[in-house]
Amino acid sequence: MRLRARVVAALTALFLAAGATGCGDSDGGGAAGSDWPSASTPLDTSGLVYAVGDTVRLGDGSDLAVGAKVDRFVLAGDGVFFTSGGHETGPDGRYYVDPLSYSTGDGTAREVAADASDLRATRDGRYLMFMDFGSGEKDQYGTPQAVVVVVDTTTGDEVARTTKGMGDPSSDDDLADLYEDAEPRLEGFADGTAYYRGATDAVAIDLATGDVTVRDEDASAPALDGLHSPDGRWTVEDVYEDYAPQDRLVTAGGERVRLTGVPPQVDLVSWIDDTVVAGYALDGSADAQGLTAGSTQPLITCEATTGRCEVVPGPTWDQVTFPEGSAD
């Protein structure tokens, strides 16, 4: 499922459920809303990183057991921040949350936020950002205002906790309708700034100062959709036809890169570094019911400079979860 669809699904579940415990919030940083972990030496986030079940495999081949199923995750600080899939809670199951947990890989985890319906981290693992649709101030209809939180995991301090661009719960705004139409979402990090798309405005957070500002909608913004390589030289064209992935890798000038070493039908979803992208290849065929008998979708990596791809032994597409911020 593509990221946009996943966020929409979370929003829909939240709005149908309607309501969570309200709390105050403010623009800018300083106040800690949780006992955030801190680490002077973050995990090495380089290389191919993915999760299978309750285990996160790092680029060096080591495993982190987090003690619960991983539905979505990022590496930040000295561990893994992850969710295990949302659930209904509260009196009579009236609202929906997707709690954020943290683990250093010792087989246990602790909850650090009541909801994290969208999640990102910087490539070096220093900064964590998440969008909370469950704990903000409620409007007159019982819908919580969305809150965006950015944490510096080297200090455990919140850089920002803001509702800018998320409507006004004290006004006549119907936040459920507003969010369903606008689909607020995180975009990612670039050049010392965290970016997100609010319900009413595009917003930027300065990581050095914690300043939260509304962005010019017409101004150029970094490509943070997961399809572009970190240095911007390569782009994945996300294509799905005839019941199968048909992704293409192209240069900034639009020239297509010929991929070799794997079956031609590929789904490229997670940039490992400036030139290597990971994904899946369809070895066989698919129809309206799914993969045909005997077909598989192994994990692959592809080098953009040469077009050479390799199969990663072991897990297949239905077992693997890539870090949030990927194109899938």
From TrEMBL:
Record's signal peptide: 1-20
Key words, A-Z: Signal
Domain of life of the native organism: Bacteria
Entry keyword annotation includes Signal: yes
Name of the protein in its database record: Uncharacterized protein
